[in-house]
Amino acid sequence: MQQYSSTLLEKAVGEFAKLPGIGRKTALRLVLHLLRQPEAEAIAFADAVATLRREVKYCKVCHNLSDTDVCDICSQPSRDSSTVCVVETVRDVIAVENTSLYRGLYHVLGGVISPMDGIGPADLEIDSLVERVRSGKVKEVILALSPTMEGDTTNFYIYRKLEATGVAMSVLSRGISVGDELEYADEATLGRSIVNRMPFTGKSY
Amino acid sequence: MQQYSSTLLEKAVGEFAKLPGIGRKTALRLVLHLLRQPEAEAIAFADAVATLRREVKYCKVCHNLSDTDVCDICSQPSRDSSTVCVVETVRDVIAVENTSLYRGLYHVLGGVISPMDGIGPADLEIDSLVERVRSGKVKEVILALSPTMEGDTTNFYIYRKLEATGVAMSVLSRGISVGDELEYADEATLGRSIVNRMPFTGKSY
Questions:
Q1: What are the extents of the domains in chain B?
Q2: Which of A36, A130, B63, B181 has the highest CB neighbour count under 10 A?
Q3: Which superfamily does CATH assign the domain made up of B7-55 to?
Q4: Residues A64 and A71: beta-carbon distance below 8 Å
Q5: pLDDT in tens, A112-133
Q6: Which candidate from B42, B54, B73 shows the least CB-CB separation from A49?
């Protein structure tokens, strides 16, 4: 059954409704919003999506999304190329960048090892990471994967692969979140934050 | 400051974030989802939006969205053309159609009279409604506007405009919602549903 009086509308709503977290009602609201905009605005929206999908590249050094063969981050001479932060996705790069506290480079794995989902080491950018470390410039690898079973497995796999190179490896510190109330922290996190307690130097950290 | 390593990504996220209820984080999630799809899928998404905006028309009878000059609903001979349901927006047409209980035609006003938002009768499809009723075929006009001050004002304005034509006019019944618990119904609605109580015929209604 055709739900709307226009097949063009039907089609656009159907496309929006394919997006994650967007149901048909929200899809309709978004499409009608685009219809109320000047034609140029709606076309600009469509163009941005099509152009992105057609032209975006993956940086051949770090596998981050990029307009060019080597991404902006990798090609900035001011960044510390001896430190590489290993993350799962492009979103994680953005999250770390937003902290403004990291000046090294990245390596986007494209996921974590997850046998349940059929993702093995060969599906991830692990070989290219080993290659990158072996090429000699990298002094420290920061493993910034999710604190899950899969993340830990991947950390360990990478650790075994890089062990022989002698590169320094670190993981993100774990503990209670900034601004968290102690009583609401889960036991595993709170427990770990006691075991891994840090010397207090009188400064906020 | 450029937040992402790709200006193409930046642009697509920016466009998504202009949509109502979509923040930059959600926009990024949606864009990255489209990037994970096959190229044809993402292009189909963009095309559906652009084609809709370029080609969709407004039905010249009822002002609903349509692929053709006269919409599917208005051109169906099986529908009762003597009844016209006056609604605010295209969304309301879809809502009424989804009930499957209405077989008449529609008239989309494009909003309600709202001096606060600078919307007067001339900004709405009221003259065309009067014209349509005067042309003679319409026997009943159902006013299905929002139960708000603006909706009531618009109802009254239309009533005054159509009074002379002798057409029958009705409004949607108001009362407690199907499935509502009485104790949670607001006082105004509950009060009205007592005043406007209906004869009980032994059937569910």
A1: 7-55, 58-199
A2: B63
A3: RecR Domain 1 (1.10.8.420)
A4: yes
A5: 999 999 999 999 999 999 999 9
A6: B42
